[in-house]
């Protein structure tokens, strides 16, 4: 366990959002967000839907697991809360952390009603800063479906570079194997 991470920020502020660690009883808000975006999330985040999207109780269990994993320094999962509405409007996480490098993967989504408004750009830029400056990771990775052009543009806009295609890396819920595109961002190239 890395003692220097005991006092990292649990809330990150952007222009329009508060990105914060989940708290007990956030499960209802998470379930509402997942339910409102069910069609998109079933293809892009099937594990999240399987764990948290089935019921309010399942969402609360997922939230509490996220809290525990944060404390154990295994995953940093956060909700994206809109400043004006105070509603949970998205999810972002730094996961698959390899402390030996140290590196991690970033995953994210925002409510379909808020796509293409620049909110996720603000959030992802802030999470990258958090990962490099507070978690002290050396490398971040984003993997997107090969045809998820919006996510690929977002990754590039924030500073990630395309590293290649991963053939038959991901299985859709229907069973089809699809390719992923991998993007990377090294801390040495990060300029505040």
Secondary-structure map with pairings?
Blueprint: E1 11-13, E2 17-21, H1 27-36, H2 38-44, H3 46-52, H4 56-71, E3 76-82, E4 88-98, E5 103-110, H5 119-134, E6 139-145, H6 149-158, E7 161-171, E8 177-186
Parallel strand pairs: 5-6
Antiparallel strand pairs: 1-2, 2-3, 3-4, 4-5, 6-8, 7-8
Describe the structure.
With 192 residues, the chain is an alpha+beta fold. The protein has one domain: 3-Layer(aba) Sandwich (Aminopeptidase). It is 34% helix and 32% strand. The chain is built from 6 helices and 8 strands, in the order ββααααβββαβαββ. The chain has helices at 27-36, 38-44, 46-52, 56-71, 119-134, 149-158, and strands spanning 11-13, 17-21, 76-82, 88-98, 103-110, 139-145, 161-171, 177-186. An 8-stranded mixed beta sheet has the order 1-2-3-4-5-6-8-7, sandwiched between helices. Strand 1 and strand 2 (17-21) form a beta hairpin. It starts with 10 loop residues before the first strand and ends in a 6-residue tail after the last strand. InterPro entries: Acyl_CoA_acyltransferase, GNAT_dom, Ribosomal_N-acetyltransferase.
């Amino acid at each position: 366990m890395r003692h220097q991470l005991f006092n990292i920020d649990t809330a990150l502020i952007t222009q329009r959002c508060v990105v914060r660690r989940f708290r007990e009883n956030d499960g209802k808000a998470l379930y509402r967000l997942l339910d409102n975006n069910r069609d998109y999330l079933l293809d892009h985040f099937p594990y999240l839907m399987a764990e948290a999207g089935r019921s309010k109780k399942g969402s609360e269990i997922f939230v509490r697991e996220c809290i525990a994993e944060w404390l154990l320094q295994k995953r940093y999962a956060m909700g994206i809360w809109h400043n004006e509405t105070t509603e949970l409007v998205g999810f972002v996480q730094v996961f698959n952390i390899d402390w030996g490098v140290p590196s991690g993967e970033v995953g994210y989504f925002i409510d379909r009603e808020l796509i293409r408004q620049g909110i996720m750009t603000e959030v992802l830029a802030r999470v990258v800063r958090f990962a490099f400056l507070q978690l002290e990771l050396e490398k971040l990775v984003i993997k997107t479906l090969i045809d998820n052009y919006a996510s690929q543009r977002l990754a590039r806009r924030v500073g990630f570079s395309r590293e290649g295609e991963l053939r038959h890396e991901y299985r859709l819920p229907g069973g089809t194997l699809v390719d992923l595109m991998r993007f990377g961002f090294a801390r040495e190239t990060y300029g505040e």
